[in-house]
Amino acid sequence: MVGIIDEVGDGVSEWKKGQRVGVGWHGGQDNTCLECRRGDFRNCRNLKVTGISYDGGYQEYMLAPVEALAAVPESLSDAEAAPLLCAGIATFNALRHSGALPGDLVAVLGVGGLGHLGIQFANRFGYKAAAIGRGPENATLAKKLGASVYIDSKSTNAAEALQKLGGAQVILGTAPSSKAMSELVNGLGPNGKLMVMGLSFDPIEVTPAQLISGNRTIQGWAAGTPTDSEDTLRFAELTGVRPMIETYPLENAEEAYARMMSGKAQFRVVLTM
Asked: Which pLDDT score is estimated for 162?
């Protein structure tokens, strides 16, 4: 969520009343565990999650730990910036840590809440972006978002299509489908990496032979820290990456939630004050 600081706690000096800030999925860390001592705050043993560890943004006022705050550029509206602090940072951060270089083939599985931002970031990073969706209806949108190629996994073997393009250096698995991700492993090129982002509780099926052949890798990826959020926001500001959103006033939160859960929203539902 994004808002204006109304008050700061005792001893807080780096943030000021009236400053516009955002809070993402990463809601704070303990600063004492081994991972925190190593600076790996994303993997804190006692990670705080906004809206789970404490009350989130379904309200006019909220309390947030100081280490959860990210500064928000003035050129981004609240409604634009908020989804970038979740789906935005997740895809941006995954891609910049993926090892892919400009010109590499990077595939994005899913043209949805995560995927529509992943395609934009992949394009702005200088990758050859391939979008993978089910059905032809997302082809036009995928191209508009910056995809060089659209692969309809309903009518073609997506892994074979990626191999015809030379094999993907990275596949960003944004769709919450273990089956769809399993089917794409063979689309990876040499030293290719499947980055798992879409949350599913079914197993991803892969054989040792698939990984050994071509030195392929599967890696899970979560969002990032508030400094990663600030990097995401600044990059989006510079390159024009923006989320596609549907807005609802706070008093219609129940309706907005139902719209989100229906899977029909394009692509992020945002509550406004």
From this structure: 98
Tell me whether strands 105-109 and 128-133 are parallel, antiparallel or unpaired: parallel
**Nearest CA-CA partner of 78 in 21, 37, 11, 24:** 21
Cβ distance 218 to 206 under 8 Å? yes
**98-220 CATH:** 3.40.50.720
**pTM of the full structure:** 0.96
Q: Quick one: what percent of the chain has pLDDT higher than 70?
A: 100
Measured distance CA(247)–CA(265) in Å, rounded: 10
Map out the domains of the chain as residue ranges: 2-78+224-242, 98-220
φ/ψ region of 93 (left if φ > 0, alpha if ψ in -120 to 50, else beta) reads alpha
In a 3-state reduction of DSSP, which class is residue 179?
A: helix
Q: Band of the pLDDT at 249, cuts 50, 70, 90? A: very high
H/E run at residue 152: strand 149-152
